[in-house]
Amino acid sequence: MSASKMNLPVKAKTTCSYCGVGCGIDVSINKKGNIELEGTADHPVNRGMLCSKGRSLNYVVQDQSDRILYPQMRGSKNHPLQRVNWDTAIDRAAAVFKTFIDNHGPNSVGFYISGQCLTEEYYLVNKLTKGYIGTNNIDTNSRLCMSSAVVGYTKTLGEDAVPISYEDIELADCFLIAGANPAWCHPILFRRIEQHKEQNPDIKIVVIDPRVTDSCAIADLHMQLTPGTDETLLHAIGRVLIESGNFDLKFIQDHTDGFEDYKEKVLSTSLAEAAEICDVPVDQIRLAAQYIGDAKGFLSLWTMGLNQSTQGVNNNLALINLNLITGHIGKPGSGPFSLTGQPNAMGGREVGGM
Fold first, then answer.
1. Which of 182, 208, 170, 206 is nearest to 296 (CA)?
2. H or E element: which one contains 27?
């Protein structure tokens, strides 16, 4: 007997719309007509796991108390919002845009879109904005969220692309988490790191953060630096790696440019000076460098604590350079792993969203 004839719920597969991890979800309707969900058991990202945010998606969708369920419109700014049908709302929006474009030109309007859009949606709004209206005024969450990482990757690697996969998590034996709290903001990814640490207690986890976050709970080393001194601290770690010989000269010679300039930069500040600037003990800087230098697989992870800064690009360069000087890129368990805030930020960039 088929499922449809038995009137059993049919599962639909989708992706969680919250953070940038991208967990797979199976959605179904129960006999009472309510939405139920569970993590997709064989999904390569979450392997059936879901965090509290993902598990609550069905309640968010079904909540009728404070969600906008239909279009609302004001006759003027002093009038209350009133319910209207979709045709009225779309006609009004188009008329407002047309008025501004006719009176002030296409550059008088713009679109700011979410990192939760599908890539196809990004493509369509780009066509509407650039191809039809004729303005370049379109931006995505990537401008605020990821622009520092975009420039960091482009300057160091030549392309805006994350050069690792999630499978590298279980192959790494050293993690450097800087300016990020994945325990809260990327929970399922952090669960995988936790499980890996539980099964392999000798792996090392270094957290660089002014705050004591939940991510510090499993850290072997928490470097509680002064806010805004990330670049100095990362350069100090680079200095120790060079002075101790824990760098990959063959990889540097075969695959990189600019090492001498980098070396001159990191050696220009002594460890004592860096320690004072960052308010981090010298022995912690040396220990972090030792963990990285001894690693067979080294993953560096970071997010808004490095990106959303006046020094955001330089922070990214300083971190990615640790992977480059040690040759920890392009091999299993190694690479610079930028964590994003929304599930399809890169999709928007790939179709011209920046």
1. 170
2. strand 24-29
d(CA 186, CA 191): 9
Are 61 and 83 within 8 A, CB to CB?
A: no
Query: Which pTM does this prediction carry?
Result: 0.90
pLDDT in tens, 78-104: 999 999 999 999 999 999 999 999 999
What is the fold, at CATH topology level, of the domain defined by 8-62? Phosphorylase Kinase; domain 1 (3.30.200)
Structure confidence at residue 9 as a pLDDT band (50, 70, 90): low
What is the rounded distance in angstroms from the CA atom of residue 175 to the CA atom of residue 159? 23
What is the rounded distance in angstroms from the CA atom of residue 174 to the CA atom of residue 203? 6
For residue 255, what are its two tokens? Answer: 């695959």
Contact 172, 299 (CB under 8 A): yes
Helix, strand and coil content of the chain, in percent to the nearest 5, comes to 50, 15, 40
285 — pLDDT class (breaks 50, 70, 90): very high
Among residues 117, 136, 119, which one has the least CA distance to residue 128?
136
Using only the alpha carbons of the chain, give its radius of gyration.
Answer: 24
Q: What is the per-residue pLDDT across 98-157, written as a single tens digit (0 to 9) for each? A: 999 999 999 999 998 888 888 899 999 999 999 999 999 998 877 778 889 999 999 999
Cα 254 to chain centroid, rounded? 30
Check if the beta carbon of residue 19 is closer than 8 Å to that of residue 53: yes
Q: Which two tokens stand for residue 222?
A: 């928490």
Q: What is the largest CA-CA distance in the chain?
A: 75
CATH 3.40.228.10 fits 145-345, yes or no: yes
